[in-house]
Every structure is written in structure tokens, then in C-alpha cells.
Amino acid sequence: MKQKMKSVKYLARIVFFILISTISCKKTDPMQEVISKSFDVIEQQALGMAEYLDDKEGRLPRSYVKEKDEIITSDSRWWCSGFFPGVLWYLYEYTGDPGHMGWAEKYSARVEKEKYNTYDHDIGFQIYCSIGNGYRLTGREDYRDVMVVAGKSALERYNPDLGVIRSWDSNRQKWQYPVIIDNMMNLELLMWNFDHTMEQKFRDVAVSHADKTLEHHFRPDNSSYHVVSYDTLTGLPHVKQTHQGAFDESIWARGNVWGLYGYVVMYRETNLERYLDQATAIANLLIDHPNMPEDGIPYWDYLAPEIPDALRDASAGAIMASALIELSTLTEGELSQKYLSMAEKQLTTLASPEYLAEPGTNGFFVLKRSVGHLPGNSEVDVPLTYADYYFVEALLRYKTLKGW
Ligand code: GLY
Question: What is the per-residue pLDDT for 174?
């Protein structure tokens, strides 16, 4: 009898031990900590920003000058106008709080008129990140209508003879028809329109643009040029240069991660293997490059002459993490694990005090230390609204992937 009691007690101890370890394992998963700690900051900063701008008619956040404690804002025409409404939508997705939805609706309304933007290629950033997220989360019919109008506006910049969407109407004499690698990010708006209207033109234009970019923007090592300008008579590139990178043949970090993100989207939307091949080739280049820092946040340019003292670009790290999380779901085995591990590292670094703001500081932006346009001496080592947007998106993507 004594022996039986002993075994029961022993068994009970084992069961108790397993239960405690399971509970404490769940509690201490490092990525769960990263996500919840980051969202605490995101909520406080985004609400602080929403309240600060509330009475500033039509204004949206752009950056922050620490020395003057000044929040820099823009109107809806700036290419980044959709990112803050997008952050609010993602915050609402995380919390389910109707108050957060109210703010998201309010700031999305400030961007809506950009549905008519035909003056540059940035309509995808402006409308997809704001109203597109709003439609995804609410199903509002008026948001759907905005997305369709925006898709049609985006088509206006497509030249069927060249097969690409024009990026800038620049008066820079050196470019006849400039297309920047960033433009890959606007194809998601076109593919959304194809999915929702079944009008073939949206898909045809997106595929043509992605194919031409594949043909002309990439070097043999799969790094990309920033600007390719097409000769409007021959239809061929007449110049390949940089605008925001260190030099023409350099690897400007954000441009290259825009390309990565864009081909991940195009593979998800079309199932065309060539886009998956390009996405994995870019990812491998950026992850395995000898100048990729150990903590996963790229220098602003992979070939910046001042490496190892070059500035890091948090925005490139955040965009890359978000793209890699999705790419990990489209690949298998070791490759998939490689992409997810890098994204985990990047999110962990971005959630450290080096990059994540103390609530109430940093002009209500979430992340510090991004580089906008270093050669133009503009927005260098500052918070930027797109760094915040893709950081929040990546955290949510990771959470969804894990089913938390
Ligand atoms: N042109 C968008 C960017 O600076 O990444």
C-alpha cells in the first residue's frame, strides 16, 4: 500500500512538473515577448500621434527632428501618407478596440483623395496601406470603391510599348522614362484589383512590369539598380543609376528589400515560379552578404564606403523581416527556416532599446534610426513612418504564422 502511494505521488509530481514547464515555456517564448512588448509601445506611440495631429487638418506624420523636438508632417500627396493610417489599422487588428478603428478611419479619410493620384507611382503605398487594410478588416463598400478607383489611376501610368509603369514625371533631363525598383511595391494594388474585379488588365500590367523589371533591373548577383530609365523609342534601358544609394553599382538596402517584398507578393498572387526564384535569390543575397551585420539590420547601403561605421537603416530591416516571414510560408525545409530565423533576429533587434522608442519620446514614432535619402542629406538617422508600418506588419505576420 505504502509503495502504491509512493508511485501515485511520484506520478503526480511528474504531471505537475510537465504542466509547469508547459505553462512557463509558453510564457517565455522570446518572440511572444518581442511582440507584446512592441505592441505596448506601438499602442502608446500611435495614440499619442493620433491625438497630437487630431486638430491639424489633413496632416499626416512623416518624421521627427530630435534636436528641435519637432514632428515633421505632410499632406496626403507625400508618398508616405498611407503608412500611419496603416499602423492604426494594424493596431486595431491586434487589439480589436473600436476606438483604434475610429482613429484608423479618421486618418484613412485624410489620404482617400490620393485615389486620383496619377502624378507618380506611389498610389499603391498611399491607398493600399491605408484604405486597403481598412477594407480587409471592415469590408466597407466605400473602401472597396476607393481601391478600384486607385487601381484605375495606377494603370494610367503604364506605357504598353515599354511594358512598365513610369515612376517619376521628373524634369531631370537624364531620364526619359524612369522606373525605380520601389515601383514593385505598387503591384499589390493592381493584383488586389484583379482579384476583386476580375478585369484582366490589372494582372497583365502587373505581370508585364514585374517581368520587365526582372529583365532589366538586376545584376548577375541579383542585387538591383535603383533607377532604370527606358529609351522611349527603342524600349530599352538607356541608363541604369542610383538616386538614393551610395553609387550607381551599389546595393542600396531599401531599394533591394522593396524588390524582395515585391517579388514575394507577385509569387503569392500569380504562382509564377520565376517570381519565387527571384525572391529567394534576393533574400539569399541580402542575408548571406558579408556586409550584413550580425544583428540583421542592414547598413543603409550594403556597399557604403563608410562600413563598418555606416548608418543602419531600420526601415530596410523592418521591410525585409516582413517579406521574409511571408517568404518562409512559400518555401520549405531549411530555406524556409533560414528566412524565418533571419526575420526573428531582425524583429528582436528592432524591439531592443537601440531601435524601439521609449513611449512618449521619438515624436510618437515607434522606431528610431532609419535613413531616407542620405546622398540628398534628407531624413538621415531619424524615425520614418514606413519603418513603423512594416515593423508592425511583420510582428502581426509572425503572430498569425504561429497562431498566437
Ligand atoms: N522612394 C521610396 C524610398 O525612399 O524608399
Answer: 87
